[in-house]
Amino acid sequence: MPALRTSVRSARDTVRDRLRTWKVPGDTCCDAMLLVSELTTNAVLHTDSGHVLCGLTLTGDERRLRIELHDDGRIPVRPPEYRAGLVEEGGRGLFLVQQLADRWGSASSTRAEGKVVWAELTVHP
Question: Which of the chain's termini has less CB crowding within 10 Å, N or C?
C-alpha cells in the first residue's frame, strides 16, 4: 500500500477482517490491530518509503500470530530509549509495541528494499 497516513486505517481494517476470518479471539485481535497501526504509522512517518507491505502469519497450531511491516527504511528499529512526556502528542508507538508484543524486532527485509519490523502475539482462546 502507499506510504500515506490514510494507509494506516486500510492496514488496520484489512488485518481486522483477516483475523475475523481466522476466528482469532477478540483480545488478540484488538492487540494485533493496535500493533499494525503503530508499526504502519512508524513506517509512514519515519521512513522515506513510497510504499509499505503488511503481512500476517498464523502458525499451523494457531497459537502464534506474527505481524510484519516491510518498508524501504534502512535504519534498524530499536527499543525506545526514552518515554514521551504527558503533554507530548507522539513518541509512544514503539513503547506500545514493546508492551503488547510477546516478542518484536527488526531485520533486513526480503520483500522490500529496506527493513521489516515484526511483532508476535500469543493467541489466547
Answer: C
